Amino acid sequence: METKIYWSQFNHMFNSEKYGHILYNAETNAFANISIDLYNLLFAISKGVKEIEELDNATIDNLLQRKILVKDKNDYLYRRRLRYYFQAFDTSNLGLAVAPTTACNFICPYCYEDNKVNKYMTEEIEDLLLKFISGHRRTNILNLTWYGGEPLMGFKSIQRILDGLKRIDHIKLGLHNMPTNGYLLTKEVSLFFKENPMNSIQVTIDGAKEHHDNLRMLPGNLPTFDKIVSNLDTFMDYNPDTPVFIRMNLLNDNIDSYGKIHQELSSHWKGRDVLIYPAFVKDFSDSCKSNCNLVSREEKIEFFKELKDKYKIDVQFKPLNSSTGLCGATHVNYYVIGPEGEMYKCWNDLGVKEKIIGYIDGREKNYDVLTRYLAGPTIMDDKECQDCSIMPICTGGCLWVRHKNLYENKELDYMCCTRKDNLDKIIELQYEETLKASL
Asked: 410 lies in a domain?
């Protein structure tokens, strides 16, 4: 019986004014410049006007190899779902985001953690946490992220917990990371992490000094830029092998300054293990909706193009394949631990009483929230996602946002990736980069 061959749903074709007719496949992440005759024939095939059999055998074999043509329409979805299950229910690793405090010393206007009560972890809760970790007998690796609030406001708890982890024989510390605003990253803290090294540390610097100090300030509108840069200098001196990620939150108010501050900070930390990257502010908090000038999806692509053309900053335009769309919230062995020993599945839920799934001492469990995260709707269950031509290069959007929209009647517009609206432009830019590299 002859095998049926299909046109892949993950193909995308367009006519570039600069480079001619381009064919792209999101599953293989491959693209090619093709002749107008082949373009027209493939376009007719994609619309069902002509049959695949009108292609010659060599072309069919070539397109099958690149998955432009496929023998099973559902093969990709099945494989992605299988990878999702393998990762989601793996118990060999324990992932924890531990918030020793929900307090923060900054008053950033776009913070989604506004209006949350300041709490600190006690030594009793720290002991319960260590007991909770030790109780995972089938686990041999702990991946640990310090979270908050501002985690360094609970530095004493961090010290005691890391000391206690050394006494748990069957679990070794794997990934060890921390996002921090950097203001409390003192010499004492830097020396401590020299003895208890992290795999990375993330600090936010929101543009040039003046703009940063207007966004990331202490109560009383006191500035923070100079102190953060000085602290990072000290940290890098004592921890040269710990990568430092500098995140710059972008609004329309500061997007034009990114290229310049990127160059300035790159020069300041030349030779250091530092990666500076942009992150676009989203309207998760009511305060941001009234005070933030958000960057549109279309503006993001023009921004990345300018970085490459004007500032010669390396930009990776080629989309990256997403193997599963898995995040910690969908992992059976991942928890966010609050300062009172309460457990959550998502960072964004910290401090929200209704989103507590249980406690580290084994008390009550909220199975409604737990099952929604572990067995609820994901990219694999969304009909729009299943039919989307760029599903292989999309994570499926934030699960927390998906739940907000489905269960709380929100209309947060962050499910689809930016590439969906700008795919022609992105592929054209990547093709341009490929041509330059071949010269």
From this structure: no
